[in-house]
Amino acid sequence: ISIPTYNTVAPSFVATRYIGHGQTLKISYNHRIERPQYRVLNPFINATDPKNISTGNPNLSPEVSDKIELGYNKSYDKGSNINIALFYATSNHDIQSYITYYPTYHPSSRPGDTTYTDVNVTRYANVGLEERTGLSVSGSVPITTKLNIRGNMQVFDNYIINQLDPGLNSNGVDYRINLNASYMIDSTFICEAFGNFNSARSNIQGKTASWSSYTLAIRKLIFHKNGSIGITAINPFNEYVNMPSSLSGPNFTLTTLRQVPYRSFGVSFTYKFGKLEFKNPKPEENNEEGGEGTK
Question: Is 84 within 8 Å of 135 (Cβ atoms)?
């Protein structure tokens, strides 16, 4: 067996400049190689649903990606912060699941093996070149001394050049939004809420599932703030997360609704022992020069 070389150069570049009044500009570039995970390489055939079979692909090549980003950050006196970034990214040999329809499908040529009819076979493949151009905005705002809101939004145009079925390219706008709020009832009692929404994602054969979730949590500090008790509820009012998708290709159209049981409740307890703290040591001469010493 001939094993290919793994000597890879993956350069990165970052430059930042402070432009005053709490403002910073940043430009970055990175080149990365992402090798496929074992589960997408495993050639084992999953025929639990004989009309929708899935299998891995041991012949996958690694993805090769390049990303350039221009960012702006602004910090305000009262603790607010905003970060805006424009980015452009490409991924060659992009790895995605790919569905092929077969009127008759033979997993192997061995006598006695099962033959499937009218079956969709999902396998992973290097589908082609993916290009993403987008905007990311994140920030934090202390509404009051007790209420803090943090959020993140990313929207991007996703264009995929199909190298498996030339001419059947894909293009779509995808986005995701995260929002977190925390409220301090008093110095030992904190409430939090977290929401997350992901739009349907464009892929080589259409749109995969959109989904959303939300989390509610309360935390009480006890034992002079050395311990805490927390209660967490994820999607408490919805038993399932619904994930609809619509895919199409030569000779087939596939519409599915996947229901994932996501509702859960949890209780946690933490306690901190001792007084161990991790601090950077400060030179003794700081005290001699009037600097702040270690207390």
Answer: yes
94 close to 128: Cβ distance less than 8 angstroms: yes
Residue-level length of the chain: 295
* Pairing state between β 52-55 and 116-142: parallel
Predicted confidence (pLDDT) at residue 288 exceeds the cutoff of 50: no
For 264, the token pair is 């859960």
C-alpha R_g of the chain: 26
**For residues 179 and 7, what is the distance between their CA atoms, to the nearest angstrom?**
41
The DSSP bridge pattern shows strands 206-207 and 170-186 to be: unpaired
Classify residue 277 as exposed, middle or buried by CB count within 10 Å of its CB (0-12, 13-18, 19+): exposed
Q: Are strands 170-186 and 81-105 parallel, antiparallel or unpaired?
A: unpaired
Please state, in angstroms and rounded to a whole number, the distance separating the CA atoms of residues 98 and 170.
Answer: 13
- The whole-angstrom separation of Cα 271 and Cα 223 is 9
In 10 A of CB 211, how many CB atoms? 18
Beta strand extents in the chain (DSSP E only): 12-20, 23-34, 45-49, 52-55, 63-75, 81-105, 116-142, 147-162, 170-186, 189-198, 202-203, 206-207, 211-222, 227-234, 240-249, 252-261, 264-271
Burial of residue 96 (CB within 10 Å: 0-12, 13-18, 19+) is: buried
Q: Please state whether the predicted TM-score (pTM) of the whole model is above 0.85.
A: no
pLDDT at res. 293: 42
Closest by alpha carbon to 239, among 209, 211, 214, 260? 260
Place of tokens 């702006």: 72
How many whole angstroms separate alpha carbon 5 and alpha carbon 139? 43
Q: For residue 174, how many other CB atoms are within 10 A of its CB?
A: 20
- State the pLDDT at residue 112: 59
Highest average pLDDT, of 68-72, 106-110, 182-186, 256-260, comes from 68-72
Please tell me the distance from the alpha carbon of residue 62 to that of residue 256, in angstroms, as a whole number: 29
